[in-house]
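Standup, Tuesday
Yesterday: got the pipeline producing structure tokens again.
Today: sanity-check two examples.
Blockers: none.

Example 1:
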Amino acid sequence: MKWERLLTRGRFGDKPGFIPTQATRSEFEVDYDRIIFSSPFRNLQDKTQVFPLPDQAFVHTRLTHSLEVSSVGRSLGKSAGEYLLSKYPNLEKTGITSSEIGGIVAAAALTHDIGNPPFGHAGEEAISDFFKFHPLGQVWKNHVRSEQWADLCNFEGNAQGFRMLVSKQFGLKLTYATLAAFTKYPRPSLISHRDVARRSQKKFGFFINQLADFEQMAAFLGIGKSSEECWMRHPLAFLVEAADDICYSIIDLEDGCTMGLVSFEETVSLLAPILKDKFDPEKLKNRTNAQNLGALRALAIGELIQETVEAFSQYEESMCKGNFDKALTDIIPSAKYLQKITEVSVFKIYRSKVVLEKEAAGFQVLEGLLSVFSKALYHQFYAPDRFSGQDKSILRLLPEDFPLKGWGEEVNPYPLIRILVDYISGMTDKYALNLYRRVKGISFPGS
């Protein structure tokens, strides 16, 4: 892969030969602005990051988390861009700047959770489990192809995000570079062999009906394949991943301390090794715990950004050849300290009662919504003798633009189910819960 091509300003959906005329903003700033003003991004304000929203203490939502990841991503991308421009003087001839490279990473990082369903990762499992195990999900298995069934049984927020970013519904038309930097897992769900040594193959990054869109992006940017079924990562995707890793490691710990799940003293002991000689316990005196947490968090993130850019600079050539395929935060000097934070977070935060209760509720809500809508759709188009008045009422709750024509026994229903999953996964936590209560008769409109 060549940087001149990887940083091309072409935009998804533009006709061949189209030349951008934007003068006041770079193409990557346009990406950022379009994302900020999009409805899927706004919906992140009511989607859980880790904790249900408490009454007294501030904790992060998917929205605030995404904004912070984007901020870290911009710093990573700009610093990496300065390194690339000094190493490859020919890049300057393309007009690319370090700020634009930072803009690519910032925009991609802003969207990194845009495909996540309600209730966090529990929501992903709930959607997957519905098709794997629930009778009303299993009914579709014999109507779709094997690769389509693999998509349904393995809901993946990254793939859902790619689907949303290329969808005409939202009209984002992002640059190919931003789309590629977003795509941490450049492979489909069903592959014959997964190379466990390659980080980019840990999950999948697009559903099978977005394969042509992904191939178009990869061809435009000159992204090659690492195997017959998988592609190489765009090198900037490593920075997007690192920005997310840094933020959830440090900030989930901060939220856990704010919620009283991890003591202030233990939080300090976990962050201090990252700061090394910058840590001064004397400065913790005469300030509130909240003030100290903010200062320590900022210092830790700054140190991790520096270490990550150094690692990127060391392995950038190997990334372009497709030989390097690890998380940057796994190889930086502070990796062992991040691992310790993760271990404490899993035990004391992610498995805390308040988080587990939220996850349990999420399973019930999403399974319940999928059940009633899936049953109604299946009865109408694939078992009409069982289509009931209840089914008819349920289908009237679907969005006005939901495609309810053209389906039947001889028609593959995968696109129909995909759109149903789009609808449910795009809900906010609160909307999903309220709709579940109503379709289950637990509450009534206006109550």
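Example 2:
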Amino acid sequence: MTVAGFTFNAFSENTYLLIDETTRQCAIVDPGCYEVAEQQALRQYVASNGLQVVLLLNTHAHIDHVLGNQFVLTTWPGIPFLLHRFDLPTLRAVPTYAANYGFPQYQPAEPTGELVAGQPVRFGETELEVRFAPGHAPGHVVFYHEPTSVVIGGDVLFQRSIGRTDLPGGDHATLLHSIETELMTLPDATVVYPGHGPATTVGEERRGNPFLTSFNK
């Protein structure tokens, strides 16, 4: 599996394509594409690289991570859209405030299935482990691919920072517990692709993240 990333919308949100190199099937995670140019960039990358989009995944459902959900489902019709059930209220609240955040053309989309911790997600010959990591959002999950030592982490852990916990459903202690149990238990070389900012590693954050001093070794 390889990872291709895009940075979209006013929140500089990271959208990821997870590509199964054997079959060229791919999953789109957290599509933040809102402007037409952003949507075209995603569509053109898929086409020019001979990819087959087969799955839409959300780590969580804050507005910056779901702006492109409906675009993806319209562009590649019939693909499953999976979200943890605890974040359904987060997703369904987006239309109530999207215009106030500068996204009046937001189009909502409903999941077709749910993500469950411990139940793998598969596409092509790739299998992702779903890990439940609430704290930033009630139904936040991360996706771990052990063969390539990669985590698609959403807004849980950033380079030298962690996700905010002042939004509805957020909780600082819960987020720290999620990081401790779901990310700090992974090998230090594991690459974390976050929802904002550059990629980092578990070891780098264990040693140098000021929010994780209790885990630093």
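Quick observation on example 2: The chain is about 25% helix and 30% strand. The chain has a mean pLDDT of 97.
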